[in-house]
Amino acid sequence: MDSKTKLIIKVNKLLIDKFGIPPRNKSLPDPVDMLIATILSQNTNDNNSYKAFKNLKEKYPTWEEAAKANREEIEHSIKVAGLGKQKSAAIKNFLTDIQKKQKTITLNYLKKLDENSAIEELINYNGVGVKTASCVLLFSMNRNICPVDTHVHRTVNRIGIVSGKTPDKTFMLINKNFPPKIAHSFHTNLIRLGREICKPKNPSCGICPLNKICIYEEKDLQIKKMHKKNDFMLLDNIETKYSEK
Ligand code: SF4
Fold first, then answer.
1. Is ligand 1 within 6 A of the CB of residue 216?
2. pLDDT (tens digit per residue) in 64-122
3. 45: alpha, beta or left, given left = phi > 0 and alpha = psi -120 to 50?
4. For 111-169, how does the pLDDT look when each residue is reduced to its tens digit (9 = 90+)?
5. Which of 214, 215, 223, 225 most suits a substitution to test ligand 1, by most atoms within 8 Å of the C-beta?
6. How far apart are CA 169 and CA 190, in angstroms?
7. Closest ligand 1 atom to the C-alpha of 203?
């Protein structure tokens, strides 16, 4: 086992000691729902992206109906999530493209593919990037893939697990020989670490469970308060929370 893989296992254990094993829904969300929810989640909080997802599902009960809408109509439904023009274009482009290529709007055929082939297939659709594709694999297909968002990118580079200049480079480095079965807890707890302790500015290293192994040069070990706890993780709850309403 290489040193990076050993470090991931160690970090995962320390994060579980601090935050516990993140809960998962028994039934996995539909991959197309997950893909759209991930697009909506960019640069906003979970509550606003959830509201946008709910608005979209209420206005267009099927993705085929949403595909017929023009971009501006989609933008109107999702404006609460911000970046409406960009996100509505990504959604419209994806729905149009998948309908053209598959004749129907489903991603269930990806379940037969291995991880690399499924990611390649997904990023070939207009409007879909590596982060969105990897979220679909982790959250909807239960694959052992660690998506890299801004929190995961920042924390794994500070800790010294990898050295990647961009989230896509970090994704490639971290997922090479990723240890089995721990991607969901590792990814989810790192997001929590990034939101509550390892903030972009002034990380609270004094209360961080990783402060003995982290190599971040600007580590500040003064004791500071933890930031607001946020247990709700949109991408793990998209279907459940929506159906509760
Ligand atoms: S020790 Fe500090 S920089 Fe390192 S992971 Fe923890 S909060 Fe982030």
1. yes
2. 999 999 999 999 999 998 889 999 999 999 999 999 999 999 999 999 999 999 999 99
3. beta
4. 999 999 999 999 999 889 999 999 999 999 999 999 999 999 999 999 999 999 999 99
5. 214
6. 17
7. 7
Give 159-181 as a 3 state SS string: HCCCCCCCHHHHHHHHCCCCCCC
Q: Which residues does 91 contact at the CB level (< 8 Å), separation at least 6?
A: 36, 39, 56, 66, 74, 78, 127
Q: How many CB atoms lie within 10 A of CB 2?
A: 9
Alpha helices in the chain (DSSP H): 3-19, 31-41, 46-59, 63-68, 71-78, 84-102, 115-123, 130-135, 141, 150-159, 167-174, 183-196, 234-244
The three-class DSSP label of residue 128 is: coil
Q: What is the dihedral of CA 43, 45, 48, 53, to 10 degrees?
A: 70
Domains annotated for the chain, with CATH where assigned, are: 3-23+158-235 (1.10.1670.10), 31-141 (1.10.340.30)
pLDDT on residue 240: 46
Average pLDDT, the chain: 91
Q: Does ipTM come in above 0.95? A: yes
Closest-CA residue, ligand 1 atom 8, reads 198
d(CA 174, CA 24): 22
The verdict on the CB of residue 161 being under 6 Å from ligand 1 is no
Distance from residue 229's CA to the centre of ligand 1 (Å) = 17
